[in-house]
Amino acid sequence: MSIAERMIRTTYPEHLGDIDRRALAACIQACVDCVQACTACADACLSEDAVADLTKCVGTDLDCADVCDATARVLSRHTGYDANLTRAVLEACRVACASCADECERHAAMHEHCRVCAEACRGCEEACARLRDAL
Amino acid sequence: MSIAERMIRTTYPEHLGDIDRRALAACIQACVDCVQACTACADACLSEDAVADLTKCVGTDLDCADVCDATARVLSRHTGYDANLTRAVLEACRVACASCADECERHAAMHEHCRVCAEACRGCEEACARLRDAL
Amino acid sequence: MSIAERMIRTTYPEHLGDIDRRALAACIQACVDCVQACTACADACLSEDAVADLTKCVGTDLDCADVCDATARVLSRHTGYDANLTRAVLEACRVACASCADECERHAAMHEHCRVCAEACRGCEEACARLRDAL
Amino acid sequence: MSIAERMIRTTYPEHLGDIDRRALAACIQACVDCVQACTACADACLSEDAVADLTKCVGTDLDCADVCDATARVLSRHTGYDANLTRAVLEACRVACASCADECERHAAMHEHCRVCAEACRGCEEACARLRDAL
What we know:
mainly alpha; 0% strand; elongated
């Protein structure tokens, strides 16, 4: 059980049913994994000989990491919960992940770090869409 | 001249005209100020005797700080610029700032830190809306 | 295998041996878990009736989350690697985690979220010390 | 008057005298400026034809931005204030800024963004040292 699940289970926010609780924990975990993948992928791109072909990928990775980081934090808070904000943040995160997945997929055949990162971004894109639809 | 303006002037991203450049620098500065105001306001709320009445304000402050922080970073990058992402992030930031301004205004008469913070949030809400419309 | 481990395995930074690679991945994961635990614990404290007794805990949680977040990011980068910086960041993170664990342990019998958070903080404190000694 | 100064003036943490209050506000502002300069400099480096010569600079910029960001947040909190943590965080920030200033200065003659960024980093390095000595 991830820390996100343990903390949600511990605090039992009452406005959430069982299904939403699972979707919430999954989305937080997906965001956290995506921060990690994008930060490491940006750095790995910088170390490639072909860095000049990967600068867009670095920029997209960094944007995605920052948006996913903020999203994980907002989703971890229920005090002062605001459905409009949660929806807008999930939408921004979904777009950031889709954009980064698109870019990383272009380099996935050449660079294993882009392949793993694209996978993490797609997973987070879907988790954000699923949670948004469940709200 | 703020650091944001100096850095934008230094790098002259070519896809920006003069007006947009000013709107961009103003929005980054507004986000950065809002992070600072919200982080300090959350802490000041925690130190009040009436903290039990301010817990929603703390949560809203923290959400707003995190979203503004990510927004300032995304707006400071032009490599891999993606208008869809910028628009979605500006919208999330606008909602976070409006929500925090609403909550802080409720306590502005009692707590000076909420008054200053509400002002910073309103300024950032408007700067985000203005930049979004200029894109 | 965590995302941190997969990304480190993918990019094989050459200045790291097998043992250090494992210590590095474990420390990144511990930091990421700690961000998550501290962010959720701060929020859970805000929702307690006894919030007035938990304000120090909220502050310590937030400090710890921010320092662990920066540490995870710095540890995920090898381009421009600087042993002095890594050591100073690990030391700051170790202190932040120890301080937060101390505070959360004081409330662990009363609040399950503090118990889980204290555990995450102790784990991260030890991971930081271990990685620092391995460098 | 910066937002940092206004918020500190608003909340008057009692454990601070006048001189420390000014040093604290100056250090928060220096950190915030440094986040902004480093984030923009990393992006500007990515857009240079000579990006292959600037990858170390990008990595150092990103590390410095993340550490300064966490430092500004920790310094903005007084609830749960812990002198050991503040000192360790200031030391990590001082090292990150010195390291980034060193790297950016190497490119300052060629790249205006590195020149402005080096200046912001030196300013923050000094502000961290000054505040640490005042504690």
